[in-house]
Backbone:
């Protein structure tokens, strides 16, 4: 249970050492970060997890014995620099700022509104002065105001077009500027391409320095730079500190918001990766890419995004009971029910599931996709699709449950679906939902993204279909529903589900910490579980030659 830190004193700091974790979000919806913080604290480390506050206040609570602190992160460097430059050279008629555009538009509207008032006042019967003037007297002002309205409209269109061109940063002059900074500055080019990254450094630096941590655990690429720069400062001041980089994603494979987003973040990651004392990541495939791409001395450890099977007793006792999935959908045990857990956006493939319902007339779909306290919000395409196909009575959109409840919550479905599209990061890792579905012992229907498809085919726990191919998806669903016990039998393989738990992954994480701080043995009160973990360079290889974590 999350507790206000003011109502709970900090644990003793005379334990194995102080760990500062860093993440670039609000923590509450990041199950990997929550699990890492809790399990490290359970293993005897003094953990303070820093995230980003939703406002200007510091918020603090506990996850188990790990303290969470959300700190404000102002963004004065977030605006793109071209937005502060004159548009004259690119579009002479465009307004300099959005504020000026809005002012001029409202100003001309007010002018024309006043002229309409004056014309009406000249004609109106009743009290009040007849100050409007004759129609002839208003003819010139009205013509002038109409011209001004058209002129402002023209400049507004030019302003919007310029904003659209500038936003992509793909114009020839933008591409040339990006290449120039890359050539001149190399991996330091992010300072010119994405200066907003300094906002993270400036928001977190003083909080990290004050705590004098023994180890910094930086989650994902933005916090890698923040953690690396903090480690360098502390080392320069004579305080020894170790840095662990937890790479959640393959940055070169991410969607680029504009022409400088990807080269800027790649440069940021490349500059700071060498400062890490150890790296961990989410899959063997990504571990290989990171080692090769950043010339790491050793293969990163792999900590899978597996679910918790042994939740904190206090947290479990204070949580609501696990809901009944079928009751929430209003269906009985004879109704075929497919479960999907996760966000809804175009690359998640949910539209494939919806389109297929026209060919699966008896099947219902449960979309566990609504964050706590928020209204349901799918893409317009999904909502339109549901309406056009008239399948709203068979699509059930449900709220998320606590992450440790997900397997039990989903377990009454007939099968679970992961319909991801082909994207570099989708190909490289097994997602949270894969392990949650597996712990629920559900037959799987997954798209043919590489890592997940290979795993499902090797274990026999489900069927694979071609991503975005509705007909092939229908084939896979029918196969699974026809003989679900055939696929459920895969989960009886000795040791399979035991290694797909967060408890097993937590041992890998603690091994990394213990290797970097060998003089901090695990307390006797928290004996290590018997999960063998070797240093990354000696991790056993799987059948495809990739290193495995457990």
Residues:
């Amino acid at each position: 249970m999350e507790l206000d830190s003011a109502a709970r004193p900090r644990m003793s700091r005379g334990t194995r050492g102080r760990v500062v974790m860093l993440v670039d979000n609000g923590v509450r919806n990041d199950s990997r970060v929550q699990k890492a913080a809790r399990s490290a604290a359970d293993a005897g480390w003094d953990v303070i997890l820093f995230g980003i506050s939703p406002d200007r206040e510091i918020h603090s609570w506990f996850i188990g014995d790990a303290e969470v602190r959300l700190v404000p992160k102002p963004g004065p460097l977030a605006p793109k620099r071209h937005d502060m430059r004159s548009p004259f050279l690119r579009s002479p008629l465009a307004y300099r700022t959005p504020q000026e555009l809005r002012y001029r538009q409202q100003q001309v509207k007010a002018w024309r509104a006043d002229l309409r008032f004056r014309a009406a006042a000249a004609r109106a019967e009743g009290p009040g002065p007849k100050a409007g003037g004759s129609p002839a007297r208003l003819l010139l002002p009205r013509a002038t105001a109409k011209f001004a309205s058209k002129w402002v409209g023209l400049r507004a269109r030019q302003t919007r077009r310029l904003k659209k061109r500038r936003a992509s940063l793909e114009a020839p002059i933008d591409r040339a500027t990006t290449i120039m900074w890359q050539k001149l500055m190399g991996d330091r080019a992010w300072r010119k391409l994405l200066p907003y990254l300094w906002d993270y450094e400036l928001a977190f630096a003083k909080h990290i320095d004050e705590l004098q941590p023994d180890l910094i655990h930086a989650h994902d690429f933005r916090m890698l730079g923040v953690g690396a720069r903090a480690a360098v400062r502390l080392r320069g001041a004579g305080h020894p500190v170790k840095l662990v980089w937890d790479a959640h994603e393959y940055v070169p494979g991410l969607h680029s918001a504009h022409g400088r987003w990807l080269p800027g973040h790649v440069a940021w990651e490349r500059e700071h990766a060498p400062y890490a004392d150890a790296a961990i990541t989410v899959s063997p495939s990504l571990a290989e890419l990171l080692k090769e791409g950043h010339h790491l001395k050793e293969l990163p450890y792999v900590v899978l995004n597996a679910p918790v099977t042994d939740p904190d007793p206090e947290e479990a006792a204070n949580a609501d009971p696990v809901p009944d999935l079928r009751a929430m959908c209003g269906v009985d045990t004879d109704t075929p029910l497919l479960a999907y857990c996760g966000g809804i956006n175009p690359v998640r493939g949910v539209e494939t599931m919806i389109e297929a319902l026209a060919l699966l007339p008896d099947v219902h779909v449960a979309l566990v996709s609504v964050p706590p306290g928020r209204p349901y919000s799918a893409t317009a395409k999904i909502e339109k699709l549901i309406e056009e196909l008239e399948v709203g009575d068979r699509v059930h959109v449900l709220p998320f449950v606590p992450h440790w409840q997900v397997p039990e919550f989903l377990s009454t479905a007939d099968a679970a679906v992961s319909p991801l599209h082909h994207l570099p990061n989708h190909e490289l890792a097994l997602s949270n939902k894969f392990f949650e579905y597996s712990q629920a012992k559900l037959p799987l229907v997954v798209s043919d993204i590489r890592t997940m498809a290979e795993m499902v085919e090797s274990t026999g726990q489900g069927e694979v279909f071609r991503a975005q191919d509705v007909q092939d998806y229908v084939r896979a669903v029918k196969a699974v529903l026809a003989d679900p016990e055939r696929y459920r039998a895969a989960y009886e393989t000795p040791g399979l589900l035991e290694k797909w738990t967060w408890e097993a992954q937590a041992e890998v994480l603690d091994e990394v910490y213990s290797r970097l701080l060998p003089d901090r043995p695990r307390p006797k009160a928290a004996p290590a579980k018997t999960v063998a973990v070797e240093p990354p360079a000696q991790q056993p290889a799987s059948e495809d030659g990739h290193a495995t974590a457990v």
User: Anything to note?
Assistant: Residues 5-9, 526-550 have pLDDT under 50 and may be disordered. The two ends are 29 Å apart (CA to CA).
